[in-house]
Design goal:
Blueprint: E1 2-6, H1 9-26, E2 31-34, H2 41-54, E3 62-65, E4 67-69, H3 80-87, E5 99-100, H4 109-122, E6 128-131, E7 153-156, H5 159-165, E8 178-181, H6 184-188, E9 192-197, H7 203-211, E10 229-234
Parallel strand pairs: 1-10, 2-3, 2-6, 3-5, 6-9, 9-10
Antiparallel strand pairs: 4-8, 7-8
Helix pairs in contact: 1-2
Length: 255
């Protein structure tokens, strides 16, 4: 695990975007795993800039998103399909049919989850997976206690996660109680993983994930076992780390 501590959120976002861009330029048919939430928005904005100003080409890229709320239609502003269209897909030259988001409206959700896993395999697996981290250590919607070998499935969201996400809804009661999420095993199958974090509120969970024990009660701690993980944080999110970490990666190309 490589940990990189930047001064600001903007620097975190630019470095992550540069790593993704390096991957796409090296392999135009790259398969990207994408996350939602506030943390990756800056990364997506920088990728949009690179597309418009530096001709970064997404025409052959395939993407798989981590999760989607059960019962949420793609046209609803709180859905993750809507989020991805708004924050990234509508502003780059990616083919929408190459962007996969779990189907929260599927009539047979277990079958849809199996099809999602099969689609990842059919495209050769995920080259780079972007992750944020929840305040309780969740990655995707794999809440504390999730199986570390789990695959794409429905998860019940706990009270802390629903409270964190309530800012996106008119009232806390509107936050869905269930979501379809890639499993931890699915995430760990990616060739490379980039975990992003910013703000002091993430300091404790970043310390637990990076330097704490491997435990299902902090699902992100499983990343310690992955052979190619880059954790990029701002100084605030790194505030409780005990080790000394560089401010720049060994290389901008994820290897």
């Amino acid at each position: 695990m490589e940990v990189i501590v930047k001064e600001t959120y903007e620097q975190v976002s630019c470095l992550a975007a540069q790593m993704v861009a390096d991957q796409v330029r090296r392999k135009p048919r790259s398969v990207l795993g994408l996350a939602t939430g506030s943390t990756p928005i800056g990364t997506y904005a920088e990728l949009i800039r690179m597309h418009k100003e530096e001709d970064l080409d997404f025409s052959q890229v395939v993407t798989f998103n981590l999760d989607e709320y059960v019962g949420m239609a793609p046209v609803q502003e709180q859905s993750y399909r809507y989020f991805m269209n708004d924050k990234l897909f509508n502003h780059i030259n990616i083919r929408k049919e190459n962007t996969y988001v779990p189907d929260g409206l599927a009539g047979d959700i277990p079958a849809a989850c199996e099809a999602f896993e099969e689609a990842i395999l059919e495209h050769g697996g995920i080259d780079i997976q972007i992750l944020g981290i929840g305040g309780n250590g969740h990655i995707g919607f794999n809440e504390p206690g999730s199986s570390l070998s789990s695959r794409t499935r429905v998860k019940t969201l706990n009270a802390a996660t629903r409270a964190d996400n309530s800012r996106f809804f008119a009232t806390p009661d509107e936050v869905p109680r269930y979501a379809v999420t890639m499993g931890i095993g699915t995430i760990m199958d990616a060739d490379h993983i980039i975990l992003l974090a910013n703000k002091e509120s993430k300091a404790a969970v970043i310390a637990a994930a990076v330097e704490g024990p491997l435990t299902a009660m902090c699902p992100a701690s499983v990343l310690q076992l992955h052979p190619s993980v880059v954790v990029i944080t701002d100084k605030a999110a790194a505030g409780l780390l005990r080790g000394e970490y560089p401010t720049a990666p060994h290389t901008l190309v994820v290897k």
